[in-house]
């Protein structure tokens, strides 16, 4: 699966759930994302991340909880050079 497709599906799913945050490719076949919203909804999104969209192959999901930043919307970010 192309990472751009995974990012697009992540944006769509997070937006449908009413979450804010971002997703980006890390350049080594890994993807990093930040989700903000009600804890139950974030947990729903994390469950989705364990399988991803139909063509995805998810090997591992690492979760770290942090204080919300007050993000608005959900976007794809580029990795800084």
Explain what the structure shows:
The structure is a single chain. This protein is an alpha+beta fold and about 80 residues long. It has one domain (about 5-65): Alpha-Beta Plaits, CATH 3.30.70.100. The protein is built from two helices and three strands; from the N terminus they run H-E-E-H-E. It is globular and about 30 Å long. The model has no long low-confidence stretch (mean pLDDT about 90).
Helix-strand blueprint:
Blueprint: H1 3-17, E1 20-25, E2 31-36, H2 39-51, E3 74-76
Parallel strand pairs: 1-3
Antiparallel strand pairs: 1-2
Note the main attributes of this structure:
81 residues; alpha+beta; Alpha-Beta Plaits; 3 strands
Mean pLDDT value: 89
Q: What shape does the CA trace take?
A: globular
Total DSSP E strands: 3
Strand order of the largest sheet: 2-1-3
Summarize the structure.
Helix content is 35%, strand content 19%. It has helices at 3-17, 39-51; strands at residues 20-25, 31-36, 74-76.
């Amino acid at each position: 699966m192309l990472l751009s497709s995974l990012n697009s599906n992540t944006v769509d799913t997070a937006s449908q759930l009413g979450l804010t945050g971002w997703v980006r490719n890390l350049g080594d076949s890994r993807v990093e994302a930040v989700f903000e919203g009600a804890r139950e909804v974030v947990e729903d999104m994390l469950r989705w991340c364990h399988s991803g969209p139909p063509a995805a192959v998810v090997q591992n999901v690492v979760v770290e909880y942090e204080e919300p930043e007050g993000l608005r919307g959900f976007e794809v970010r580029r990795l800084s050079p």
